[in-house]
Amino acid sequence: MTSHKFIENTSEYLHKIASQALVIIPVGSVEQHGPHLPVGSDSYNVQQIAEMAAEKTQNKMILVAPTLWYGSSHHHLGFGGCMSLGGKTLLAVLCDLGNSLVTGGVKKIFFLNGHGGNRFMLREAAKELVNEYNNDVIIGSSDYWEIAREALADIKIKTPGHAGSFETALQMARDEKLVDYDAIKHLINGTKPDSKDYQYRIISQAERDQLRFQSLRSRGNINRKDAFVKAGGISEVPEFATRELGEQILTIVVDEVAKFFVEFWEHS
Ligand SMILES: [Zn+2]
To answer: What is the CA radius of gyration of the chain?
Structure first.
């Protein structure tokens, strides 16, 4: 019995196929996702997408390693429920995991990202790792939404945002029980639920955009420690999120990511 999930196989089998395999390492985060989504949202989503996409390829050489649940989320530490790795720690962890795989004979590795704050460390890890080896080792990285960006063009919502319509819809499709629909109603109506005092902020989208430097974002990377806390923890109100939309997004993303995996695997 072999499996797309790396950890369900024996070391003997993994050793045997290592040089032919493409190993995907999903990387997520544990951080606040507004008053309506669980802190594991990014990790849950990227894990589901990686596993469904690998399954879809029907290529037994494409394996999904266990998700790295922790990412670089220091910009969310002002909220509760955040567990973050500093950028340098994340880079070191990714390089150690990559080194372990290459030492075991793996020649193709791909870091699949589920959290914006990780992006540059994943790129850096891929670059640092390949510099250590011969040309037969190929390592890449991307965000799942970037892989699917063109295919998602018809879905006219902000992609991915943070705890907005896109991520909320995906979570609804994955496991509705973990979505607080009452909190979403209040976010849309601009009202405050009695049950949620903690850092719940009612602000206009214009104010939120201003706090998060929206007008400068496409041209530069601007940071301020309290930006997300002041903006109430979300990039926009998840007003368009439905389970159906989530299923639609998931289908598109899984298709595109599966195609990407196959193309990467075939590349010599
Ligand atoms: Zn997220």
So the answer is: 19
pTM of the model: 0.95
DSSP conformational letter for 35? B
Q: What domains appear along the chain, each with residue ranges and CATH number? A: 6-145+251-266 (3.40.50.10310), 165-246 (no CATH)
Crossing angle, helix 243-266 and helix 165-174, to 10 degrees?
90
Ligand 1 centroid to residue 162 C-alpha, Å: 5
pLDDT of residue 2: 87
Cis preceding-peptide flag for 160 (omega within 30 of 0)? yes
Identify the segments of the chain with pLDDT beneath 50.
none
Using CA atoms, how far apart are residues 206 and 90, in angstroms rounded to an integer?
33
Are the CB atoms for 35 and 183 separated by under 8 Å? yes
Distance 41 CA to ligand 1 centre (A): 6
Task: Give residue 115 CA to ligand 1 midpoint distance, Å.
Answer: 6
Of 67, 51, 33, the closest CA to residue 179 belongs to 33
